[in-house]
Amino acid sequence: MTKRLLQQLVLASYQKEKLNPQRVDEITNRLDRKDIKAYLRALKLMEQQKKLFVAMPKTSVYNTSKKDLEKLFPKKEIVFTEDPSLLLGVTLVDNDMVYEMNLRDQLETVLDEVDQQYSE
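-> structure tokens emitted (120 positions)
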């Protein structure tokens, strides 16, 4: 199967920008095992590209943050997870880009700088 045909099949699997399970079933029923694997990999990649993964320390700030993130990433589905190891911070994963902003990393950077200054 060519990359172009694979991309066409993946795009045909969506209806109004949402994955249509019936179309996926129709497509997979017509493919052989090797092509199904390639098709499912391409579908997973497409689904990942349509989502923004957000890790925050507490669930209580989801609602206010979601509105701001929807403005910044208008065509992305926002998926929240809780990560208590983030001290007053957030981690955003947009496709293959990871943005980390948290207090723990900032404190570690400051401690490393102080340690280097006084070690010399």
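The helical segments are 3-12, 21-29, 33-49, 62-72, 103-119.
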